Amino acid sequence: MIIYGSGGHAKVIISCIVANRDKVDLIFDDIPGRKEIYGMTVSGFYNSDILPDQKLIIAIGDNSVRRKISNQVKHPFGITIHPSCIIDKTVKLGEGTVVLHNAVIQADAIIGRHVIINTSVSVDHDCVISDFVHLAPGVILSGNVYVGENTLVGVGSIIAPGLTIGKNCFIAAGSVVTKDIPDGTMVRGNPAKIISYHL
Ligand SMILES: CC(=O)SCCNC(=O)CCNC(=O)[C@H](O)C(C)(C)COP(=O)(O)OP(=O)(O)OC[C@H]1O[C@@H](n2cnc3c(N)ncnc32)[C@H](O)[C@@H]1OP(=O)(O)O
């Protein structure tokens, strides 16, 4: 597997790959000066000619950056799932998606491309998670929740059943969402209230 990115999120993804006894073949990072991560050498700028058939995961937590890079990468995209996860056999996972330590995904959930299902996230039955979403550690989605593209659901947030969270939203840490959230809004609190229309 090739990793694109060498920050903290990359460490967790490498941990996941190593736990699966897979090999990290190469690490790209466009930020100069990053030489080593997790005991592995960082090779520098992305180069589509190196190991062109090897699968790649974009290990960058920022949804917009991950989306931008995905349009530039020529390698095929991989998936990694930590062995501690419980994922129902009916679940669909898109390319480039990572399911990190201790996450649970229940029946008939659909997870898009380049999604981050972070540590100890719970995604219940029939949820639909769109491309480039990040569900931060400890998020709990009840059944039948829809999350639009590019949205960040912050650490420890809880989403009540059947709700629609728009695209490009920011759900602040610890929010309890009890109503649908329109596109491009930031919400926080319990119950979560709209703080700003940030996009
Ligand atoms: C592995 C990983 O780490 S993945 C990480 C994924 N990222 C996240 O989950 C993002 C989490 N971060 C947050 O949610 C932060 O709380 C933020 C970004 C919303 C803070 O936003 P800021 O605008 O910087 O808030 P700031 O610190 O200026 O506080 C402004 C006010 O909002 C309050 N506030 C800040 N965050 C929250 C929150 N999550 N919920 C409720 N109130 C909050 C503050 O207490 C403060 O209140 P006051 O004016 O009465 O003193």
TrEMBL record:
InterPro entries registered for this protein in UniProt: AcTrfase_PglD-like (IPR020019), Hexapep (IPR001451), PglD_N (IPR041561), Trans_hexapeptide_repeat (IPR050179), Trimer_LpxA-like_sf (IPR011004)
CDD domains tied to this protein: LbH_AT_putative
Domain PglD N-terminal: 2-73
Signal peptide: none
Family: Belongs to the transferase hexapeptide repeat family.
Name of this protein: Acetyltransferase
